[in-house]
Amino acid sequence: MKNRFAFAQFCSAAGRKGALALCLAFCTLGLGLSVNAENRKGKIIPFDAPGADTAYSPVCASAFLGFLGCGTTPLANNDLGVVVGTYSYTYPNTNNVMRGFLRTPDGHIISFVDPGAGEENGQGTAAYAINDLGVIAGTFQDSSNVYHGFLRYPNGHFVTLDSPDEGTGPQQGTLATNINLEGTTAGSYIDGDGVNHGFVRSRQNKFSSFDPSGSVFTYPCEETCLNAKGMVTGLFVDAADTYHGFVRAPDGNITVIDAPDAATGGGLGTIAASINPEGVITGYSLDSNGVAHVFVRRPDGSFATYQDPSASIAPGEGTAAFAINLFGEVTGEFNDEYTVMHGFERFRDGSFANFDAAGAGTGVYQGTRPSTNNLNGEVTGWYVDANGVNHGFVWKP
């Protein structure tokens, strides 16, 4: 759901139905407006899950509402360097399904499927987040095309998560996309009318549903959008088709986030994409020309905004942030003038590291797409090749 700047078109296209410790002063160094054009170097390690599709097909491209793609799609890494995600797999009978995977720091990949997952085209399992205890939160789609959240424990045991208010029809249900060290999970559920709402679930299986005031579509973002304090961030859409960010406190109080560069209406506005342990939030806004601008919102409500020095600022391009770690280091993508994706990490001193996987395509919406970064600044994500197939990577600074 954080994929590409065209994310803001999702609710319109889908009709908003069926969609799915150091001190604070040190951690927020480098969150000002200064930009250092120095481009640091790093190392990219590419990988593919064994058996992952190597060809594009409309089936895997549309699985899980079309957000995960064909091939190998890493979605999150924890502070120990473990990566989780999903990959598309074609059975000998030609059914194309999604499977979850876990990649250890030494490169070993473990594939898994939730026992309740369907095995028809487009169904399956997706792992969205992993905490430092190795507990994975994710979503599976059953044989009736209903979504369910799950937890997978290090011993391979699964627990199913279903919001009491979820719908039970096709493309309805519960999507678990975040987990913190306490075992609290967060995500969204789709009700019987096809409307998205947010939820937080305690380790004791107590669900709390929420919607910001004025929301017609609520979506807590994925992977790194629930911190250890229980704060949740994400986005909602109002009746005028404007996007707003939000942060929900553990007591249920919700604060609306509107970044300085954000326009209104027409699928424009503010998209919150990640929150770190200190409550610093990053994401991006879309201005009146559809240009994406990174924002960082501090706990006091003040903002910093910036562009990657190499980004195009032509209409529809720009820079989008997807994750922020404890030290305030931000990762995301920027687009060039040809709408090709490139990865970046911005450090505390304002310097950037821009990176591209060797096999990344150079066509529209191809290229290198980071997802999350961990405490060590290691980034995981995927790159899209010239045939539209995803491949995983870990980037190390």
What does this 3D model show about the protein?
Helices cover 4% and strands 42% of the residues. It is mostly beta strands. It has one domain (5-396): Methylamine Dehydrogenase, Chain H (7 Propeller), CATH 2.130.10. The strands form seven sheets. A five-stranded mixed β-sheet has the order 1-26-25-24-23, with no helix packed on it. Strands 2-29-28-27 form a four-stranded antiparallel β-sheet, with no helix packed on it. It has a four-stranded antiparallel β-sheet with strand order 3-4-5-6, with no helix packed on it. β23 and β24 (330-335) form a beta hairpin. The longest helix is centred in the first third of the chain and has 5 residues, at 10-14. The radius of gyration is 19 Å and the shape is globular.
